[in-house]
Design goal:
The structure holds two protein chains of two kinds. Chain A is of the alpha/beta class. Chain A is 31% helix and 25% strand. Chain B has helices at residues 14-38, 43-51, 61-87, 95-111, 118-147, 151-171, 210-228, 230-240, 242-247, 252-278, 289-299, 304-326, 333-355, 363-366, and strands spanning 4-8, 200-203, 206-209, 356-360. Helices cover 69% and strands 5% of the residues of chain B. The chains are: A alpha/beta, B mainly alpha. The complex binds adenosine-5'-triphosphate (ATP) and magnesium ion (MG). Residues 14, 17, 19, 37, 39-45, 389, 399-404 of chain A line the site of adenosine-5'-triphosphate.
Chain lengths: 524, 367
C-alpha cells in the first residue's frame, strides 16, 4: 500500500505526562482513517504534531514516503496537510472569503480579487459545499463555521485532511452532509483522518480504524471486519457493558415549574416562546430540538443569567424570576451548560482543578480566606469518581484533554447537591465509557430525588435515559411525550415542527395536575 | 520570502531563562563598556562602582542604601499595585497619573501641617493620597463597567492630565499657591515642614524609614491577598474568564471596581510615602515608576515574590547607574539612563528569546 502519512515511534511528553508513547500509525492514500481513543488518550496531541503545533520528542514522520520534520503550521501546510481543530480558528469579524484569503499565499496583493473568489467558488462547488462567502463569521452557526474551516484547508491545497471531532457539535442532518463531503474528498484522492467518539459514525464513514489507549498505539483494524463492540473493547482494554438504565422512581411534587416563559436571544429575537413545563423530583425530563431552538436561552433564563421577557418560574412554590444567579444557586438549582466551544462557560481555564471546584461556593466558607483544603479533597473525589485523567488536582484545567475538562465541570455541578439539575450536552465530546459514567451519575442523582432537565442531541440516548421528553422547535413547545410511548420518528417530526401535540385529548402538555400555581391563580 | 520565522517554545525551562538573561545583560554591559572606553573611563572600575551602588570604599555608605531604598519603595508598591490590576486583565497603565494625584493631595496636607504631630500628618497624607488616587481608579473602572470604555486609553490620558496639572502648580506664582516657596522670585516647589517628613528607626547613622517597613509588610499582605483570600480568588477568575465569573454568580462589576480602587490607592500610598520621605514634591517625583512598574510586573509574570526581587534588582540598577555616574566628570546622568535602558531592553529581548525560538524555513522540506 502507498502511504500518505507514516508515523514511526512518535513520543511526546508534557512534563510528567506522556501524551504519546512510541506511536506507529499509517494513513493510506485516498482512505478515511478514523482515530479512536478515550478522552486524554493523546489523539489531539498526535495530530497537533502533524499540523506543526507541537514537535515530537522522538520518532519520525514520513509524508509520501519521505522523512520530514514539521516545525510550524506553515511547514505542515506546505506538505499538504490541513487540520480542522477541535476549537475553531477563524477571524470573527471577517467574512468567509476574507478568512480563506488571508491564509492564501502567492495570490497577489488584493484581498478581493475576482480570481480569488473564482478559485474558492470552484473548490466549494467541486466538493459540494453550500456556503455564503460574504457572510461574516460572527453571524455563522457552528456548522457553517465548520464548513468554512474545511473549505479553507482545501483551498490551501491540502491533500491530507485532519478533522478533530468535527461532529461533536453538529446535528444529525449536518453530520450526513459532512460525510457526503468527506466521501467526495476521498473520491478526489484526498486522504483523511477523522477523530470522533461516536462509534456509529466510525462505522459509517471510515475505511480503517486506528485505536489509541492511554497514549499508546493499540492496533489498526479494517472497518468492514469489525463492529462497535469490538472497537469499544480495543479502546477501553476490557469488556464493558453498554446499557443505559432508567430507574423508575416514585415521583414527588413538581420542583420546578415554568409557565409561559418568553426569552429573547442576544440579537433581541424571541428565542423561547411561551414555554410551559415542570420537573418533578426523581424525574428526568429531556429537551429535544434542533440545535439553536432556544435551548441555551432556556437554560440561561432558569439559571438567572438571562433576563426574561414574560412568564413565571416557580421553584418549590417560590418565584425565582429576577433573582441573581447566586440566589438561584442557593435555592438548589444548578445549571451546567457545555457550550459549543466547551470551555466558554463555567470554567476558568488557567486555574487549577481545585480552584475550579469551588467556583460556585468559595463564598460559603467562613472568614476571608478561600478554603483550599476542602476544595482539593473534593477535587480529588471528583477525579476518582469520574476517572479524570490528570497529573494532579493542581493542574490548570486548560492542560486537560477536551473530555476531561467536561468531567470536571459536571463533577462540580453534582457535588453542590442541587435538587434541580439542569444539564445541557453533558456528553459532548466524551468517549463512550465516560458518557456512560455520566449517565450513571445522572441516574444516581435522580434516585436521590433530584429533578433533572437534560438538554441533549442524541435521540437514542434520550429515549433510553429520560422519563419524559419535551420537544421544542423555534422556541415553541411542540409537546411533552413519555419515552415509553414514543418513537424516534415522532420526535423527529415534532422537532421540525411538523406535528404539535401540546393540546392533545383536551389536556395541555407542560402543566402539572398538582401545580403549585393552582393555589394562587386557580387555573391549572 | 522570509527564510526564518518565530515559534513559541512549547515548554519553559528556568535554567534556559537564566542563561538567556545572563547573556542579555552581558551584551548590554559590553555595549556600555565600549562607550565608556571611548570616553576614556575604565569600564571595570565603573561597573564595580555601579553594582556595589557606590558602597565599597565609601565613608558614607549608608547614604547609598538610603538612596537605593528611596527608589525601591515606590517602585515596589507601584509594581505590586499594577500587578494586581493586570492579574484581572485590567490594563491600568495610568500609574504615573495615579501617583501624581496621590503626591499632590499628600502635599496639600503636608504644606498645611505645621504644628500637627508628625505621626498624625503622615498618616493623614497617606489616607488622603490613597482616597484621591483610589477615586480616580474607581471612576475609570466605572466607565469601563458601565459603558465598556477602553481602560488603556483612559488610564493613559490620566498620566498626561496629571503631568500638566503638576506643572501648572509648579509654574504658577499666585497667592493661593502654597506649594511654592515664598522667598523665591522664580516659581519653585517649597519643602515640607518637619511635621510632614517621614521619620524612621535610627540604626547608627543609617535611618530605616517607616516607608520601607510599610512596603515590605504590604508585599506580604498582597501576596496573601492574592493567593489565599476570596477576593484574590475572584480577581483570578475575573481575569481568566469574566463569562465564567458571571456564571458563578460573582458580580464582575463590583470586583473590577474594588480591585481598581485597591490598585490605585496603593499607588497613591506609594506617592504619599515618597513625597514624605523626600520632604518635597516636584514634577519628576514619580521617577517613572508608573512605566517601570509595568516592566517589573510583566518581567515577574505577575508573581508577588518575583515582583519583590525584580524591584530590588531594577532599583539597584537605577541607583547604581546614578551613583556611578556622579563620580566621573566625563559622564552625566544621561549615560546612566542610557545604560539602564540598554540593560532593561536586553533583558526584555532575553525574556522573549527564552520563550520563542527562530526556526529556519527550509528545514521542513529537506530534513
Ligand atoms: N499543552 C499541554 N500541557 C500539558 N498536558 C497536556 C497538554 N496537552 C495535552 N496534555 C495532556 O496530554 C494527554 C492527551 O491529551 P489529548 O488532548 O491529546 O487527548 P485527546 O485524546 O485528544 O482527548 P479528548 O478526546 O478528550 O479530546 C492528556 O492527559 C492531557 O492532559
Ligand atoms: Mg482531543
Amino acid at each position: 500500500m502507498e502511504y500518505a502519512i507514516e508515523l514511526k515511534g512518535i513520543t511526546k511528553s508534557f512534563g510528567p505526562v506522556a501524551a504519546n508513547k512510541n506511536i506507529n500509525l499509517s494513513l493510506a492514500k485516498g482512505e478515511i482513517l478514523a482515530l479512536l481513543g478515550e478522552n486524554g488518550s493523546g489523539k489531539t496531541t498526535l495530530m497537533n504534531m502533524l499540523s506543526g503545533i507541537y514537535m515530537p520528542d522522538s520518532g519520525s514522520i514520513f509524508i509520501d514516503g519521505k522523512k520530514v520534520s514539521i516545525n510550524s503550521p506553515e511547514d505542515s501546510g506546505k506538505l499538504g496537510i490541513g487540520m480542522v481543530h477541535q476549537h475553531f480558528k477563524l477571524v470573527e469579524r471577517f467574512t468567509a472569503l476574507e478568512n480563506i484569503r488571508i491564509g492564501m499565499r502567492d495570490e497577489g496583493r488584493f484581498m478581493h480579487g475576482a480570481d480569488v473568489r473564482k478559485k474558492i467558488e470552484d473548490t466549494a462547488e467541486k466538493f459540494g459545499f453550500d456556503i455564503d462567502l460574504d457572510k461574516v463569521v460572527s453571524n455563522m452557526a457552528v456548522s457553517e463555521k465548520q464548513t468554512l474551516e474545511i473549505l479553507k484547508v482545501l483551498c490551501y491545497g491540502a491533500k491530507i485532511i485532519i478533522l478533530d471531532e468535527p461532529t461533536a457539535v453538529l446535528t444529525v442532518q449536518e453530520i450526513d452532509r459532512l460525510f457526503d463531503v468527506l466521501r467526495k474528498m476521498r473520491e478526489e484522492g484526498h486522504s483523511i483522518i477523522i477523530i470522533t467518539h461516536k462509534l456509529n459514525e466510525v462505522m459509517a464513514i471510515s475505511d480503517r480504524v486506528a485505536v489509541l489507549r492511554h497514549g499508546e498505539y493499540i492496533d489498526t483494524v479494517v472497518t468492514k471486519e469489525t463492529n462497535e463492540k469490538a472497537l469499544t473493547e480495543l479502546m477501553v482494554g476490557r469488556k464493558i457493558e453498554l446499557n443505559i438504565d432508567r430507574p423508575v422512581m416514585e415521583k414527588t411534587h413538581p420542583l420546578l415549574e415554568i409557565r409561559d416563559l418568553t426569552v429573547k436571544n442576544d440579537e433581541g429575537v424571541i428565542a423561547v416562546d411561551h414555554i410551559n413545563f415542570y420537573i418533578r423530583g426523581g424525574e428526568m425530563l429531556g429537551v429535544a430540538g434542533i440545535a439553536g431552538s432556544g435551548q441555551k436561552e432556556l437554560c440561561e433564563a432558569i439559571a438567572g443569567l438571562r433576563k426574561i421577557e414574560d412568564g413565571q418560574m416557580i421553584h418549590e412554590g417560590e418565584s425565582i424570576v429576577g433573582m441573581s444567579p447566586k440566589k438561584i444557586l442557593e435555592h438548589g438549582i444548578s445549571m451546567s451548560f457545555i457550550p459549543e466551544d466547551r470551555l466558554g462557560m463555567g470554567l476558568a481555564p488557567s486555574l487549577s482543578i481545585t480552584d475550579n471546584m469551588i467556583l460556585k461556593n468559595y463564598n460559603e466558607s467562613k472568614g476571608i480566606f478561600v478554603d483550599r483544603k476542602t476544595a482539593s479533597e473534593e477535587a480529588q473525589k471528583v477525579i476518582d469518581r469520574l476517572e479524570v485523567v490528570t497529573p494532579s488536582t493542581e493542574t490548570p484545567v486548560r492542560r486537560l484533554s477536551g473530555g476531561n475538562v467536561q468531567k470536571v465541570l459536571l463533577g462540580r455541578e453534582i457535588k453542590s447537591g442541587p435538587n434541580v439539575l439542569i444539564t445541557a450536552y453533558p456528553v459532548r465530546g466524551l468517549d463512550i465509557n465516560s458518557s456512560y459514567t455520566i449517565y450513571n451519575i445522572l441516574n444516581e442523582q435522580k434516585e436521590k430525588g433530584v429533578g433533572i432537565l437534560f438538554v441533549g442531541e442524541d435521540l437514542d440516548v434520550m429515549l433510553a435515559l429520560c422519563d419524559k421528553i419535551m420537544v421544542i422547535c423555534h422556541g415553541k413547545l411542540q409537546g411533552v411525550v413519555n419515552s415509553n410511548h414514543t418513537t424516534k420518528e415522532e420526535l423527529g417530526l415534532m422537532m421540525t415542527g411538523t406535528i404539535n401535540i401540546v393540546n392533545k385529548d383536551g389536556k395541555t402538555d407542560g402543566i402539572a395536575k398538582d401545580s403549585a400555581f393552582t393555589d394562587e391563580e386557580g387555573n391549572a | 520570502m522570509r527564510k526564518y520565522h518565530l515559534v513559541r517554545r512549547a515548554d519553559s525551562k528556568i535554567g534556559r531563562t537564566i542563561i538567556f538573561y545572563a547573556v542579555g545583560i552581558l551584551v548590554s554591559l559590553l555595549i556600555g563598556a565600549v562607550i565608556l572606553m571611548a570616553l576614556g573611563i575604565n569600564p571595570f572600575d565603573y561597573y564595580g562602582k555601579m553594582f556595589t551602588i557606590g558602597l565599597v570604599g565609601n565613608r558614607y555608605g549608608y547614604k547609598s542604601i538610603e538612596g537605593f531604598l528611596k527608589i525601591f519603595v515606590p517602585l515596589l508598591i507601584t509594581s505590586l499595585a499594577l500587578g494586581l490590576s493586570f492579574k484581572m486583565r485590567f490594563w491600568n497603565i495610568g500609574g504615573e497619573g495615579e501617583f501624581l494625584i496621590g503626591a499632590i493631595t499628600a502635599s496639600v496636607i503636608a504644606f498645611n501641617s505645621s504644628g500637627i504631630p508628625n505621626f498624625v500628618t503622615v498618616l493623614l497624607m497617606c489616607l488622603a493620597a490613597m482616597i484621591s488616587s483610589g477615586i480616580i481608579g474607581i471612576a475609570i473602572a466605572a466607565l469601563k463597567v458601565k459603558f465598556n470604555t477602553n481602560e488603556t486609553l483612559m488610564t493613559l490620558m490620566i498620566n498626561y492630565i496629571m503631568l500638566y496639572v503638576i506643572r501648572y502648580i509648579g509654574e504658577t506664582k499666585a497667592d493661593w499657591n502654597f506649594f511654592l516657596r515664598e522667598d523665591s522670585e522664580r516659581p519653585k516647589f517649597g519643602t515640607f515642614p518637619d511635621s510632614a517628613v517621614m521619620t524612621g528607626i535610627p540604626l547608627g547613622q543609617f535611618k530605616l524609614l517607616w516607608s520601607v517597613i510599610i512596603a515590605i509588610v504590604l508585599t506580604v499582605i498582597v501576596y496573601i491577598y492574592l493567593k489565599y483570600t476570596k477576593q484574590g480568588y475572584e480577581i483570578s477568575v475575573v481575569g481568566d474568564s469574566s463569562a465564567t465569573a458571571k456564571y458563578a454568580g460573582m458580580s464582575v462589576g463590583k470586583i473590577v471596581l474594588r480591585t481598581m480602587f485597591i490598585s490605585s490607592a496603593m499607588i497613591g500610598l506609594a506617592a504619599a510615602l515618597t513625597v514624605s520621605a523626600s520632604g518635597t514634591i516636584s514634577d519628576t517625583v514619580t521617577n517613572n515608576v508608573g512605566w517601570t512598574g509595568i516592566i517589573v510586573a510583566w518581567l515577574s509574570k505577575l508573581s508577588v515574590p518575583a515582583i519583590f526581587v525584580t524591584s530590588i534588582l531594577i532599583s539597584i540598577l537605577q541607583y547604581g547607574c546614578q551613583a556611578a555616574a556622579t563620580q566621573y566628570p566625563a559622564i552625566d546622568s544621561n549615560y546612566a539612563d542610557l545604560l539602564q535602558g540598554l540593560i532593561l531592553f536586553s533583558v526584555l529581548v532575553a525574556d522573549f528569546a527564552a520563550n520563542f525560538k527562530i526556526v529556519k524555513k527550509e528545514d521542513a522540506k529537506n530534513a
